[in-house]
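Tip: read the tokens left to right.
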């Protein structure tokens, strides 16, 4: 592989990374709306049953697209942990309004 091939592939990687970050921002926007709703209804920040269903789906999606399921599980565990932290912060803010 020459330098221009490597550079071209890295351009593709950078484009994909930008898509991933854009989609992540969209996801956090939606989960923040969920956080506000849950705080208003005094629901728990975390929903273990929903997370279990999602974990099942992540494994199915990983298998469908040929990615190691554990890699996808780890990625979403990190994202969902951040969502739950944000939901707890929204609940505290809502309680003191
Ligand atoms: C977004 C929600 O809140 C939490 C975060 C989740 C997520 O980021 O997918 C899933 C379940 C909940 O623990 C939700 O309940 O839908």
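Filled-in amino acids:
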């Amino acid at each position: 592989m020459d330098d221009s091939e490597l550079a071209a592939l890295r351009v593709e990687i950078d484009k994909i990374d930008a898509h991933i970050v854009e989609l992540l921002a969209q996801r956090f926007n939606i989960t923040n709306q969920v956080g506000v709703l849950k705080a208003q209804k005094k629901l728990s920040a975390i929903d273990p049953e929903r997370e279990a269903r999602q974990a099942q789906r992540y494994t199915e999606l990983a298998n469908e697209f040929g990615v190691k399921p554990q890699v996808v599980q780890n990625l979403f565990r990190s994202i969902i942990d951040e969502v739950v932290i944000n939901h707890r912060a929204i609940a505290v803010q809502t309680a003191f309004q």
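Residues 31, 34, 46-47, 50-51, 54, 80, 83-84, 87 surround ISJ (CB under 6 Å). The two ends are 60 Å apart (CA to CA).
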